[in-house]
Design brief:
This protein has about 100 residues and is mostly helical. The longest helix is centred in the first third of the chain and has 12 residues. The protein has one domain. The chain has 5 helices and no strands. It is globular. About 15% of the residues are buried. The protein starts with a helix and ends in a 34-residue tail after the last helix. It comes from Flavobacterium amnicola. This is TIGR03643 family protein. InterPro entries: CHP03643.
């Protein structure tokens, strides 16, 4: 993650990235599309922001989850929005009601 990217992420963006990373149906490609962070960058962010035990649980979950990578997904899953999200457009963070 570049220094510029770290400076651009505020607390709200970091919270949203963590939330998206925990969601099983949200692939890393969606995080990259919205925030410009690669999978490795998300892992670094999660390790920094979570307790170590929570990070280990998340990593174990991600390793066993086929929906976190678009290439591994079943063809019927063709979206990455959860029920709480509104339409995502580029790097704007969706708002909850």
């Amino acid at each position: 993650m570049s220094v510029t990217q770290k400076n651009e992420l505020n607390a709200i963006a970091i919270d949203r990235i963590i939330e998206m990373a925990w969601e099983d149906r949200t692939p890393f490609e969606a995080i990259r599309f919205q925030f410009g962070l690669a999978e490795a960058d998300v892992k670094v962010l999660m390790k920094k922001e979570l307790k170590f035990s929570s990070y280990k649980l998340w990593r174990k979950r991600v390793e066993n989850c086929n929906t976190k990578h678009t290439a591994k997904r079943v063809a019927e899953i063709n979206r990455f929005k959860c029920k709480l999200q509104r339409t995502i457009s580029n790097n704007k963070i969706s708002k909850r009601r």
